[in-house]
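>> received
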Amino acid sequence: MSRYTAHNDQLSPISFQISSNGVTDTGRVREKNEDSILVHADENIWIVADGMGGHHAGDFASQTITNNLSLFKQHASLDDSILLLEENILNSNSVIRKKSYKLGRSATIGSTIVCVYVWNNLLFTFWAGDSRLYRYRNGCLERLTEDHSYVEELVRMGKIEARDAEEHPAANVVLKAVGIDDNLCLDFEYFEVEQDDIYIICSDGLYKDLAETKITPIIESNPENMTELSQSLLAASLDAGGTDNTSIITLKMCQKVN
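>> returned
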């Protein structure tokens, strides 16, 4: 994981009021919802986790992550808060691995994760798997995370086009997730937040059925109310097929006036 070290001259006094909302749905095909979300606005963290393994194992994996992170309390030090978040996720990895050993199954138990933490004018994210973080800014929707998936590797190598990735037979093959290996290496990045930024954290159930080109008009129709935006995105995903569990968290940044 790449490291971020805070220095006093790097920290801006700018802070943001964050409005957020989260929704999760089983979808129209699956019998169970193995996704789990956490909207922990008091501590400025938001998480989407997409469990895998079936027979309650996926539920266990994703809920282990969100249950553990629900106990997070941010520190006065940014460095300490970031370290604590990482340690919390690594602890979840250990708990899920122990469960896997206990069950003795050949099937992999695990969960994707996108964890977002906001400190003043900075947004930090940890992720593993193919759940995603998007940013909508100045009329443009941009994906901020890279999928840890087989098809993403094929796209990087130029063997398939990005537009064909979701239709590929191996589209569901995830190369990294919490709980599938004893040694978890999370990806980590941070971004400067700007006034009126909208962020979307989602499981793959959203973008598998709803093309990114169709997400932007929905945001533009619901730019202020994050509850309406998350519900509208979910409804559009279900109308497009609802072939998987779908989880969506929406956040909007509004600069505080001192």
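>> The longest strand covers residues 16-25.
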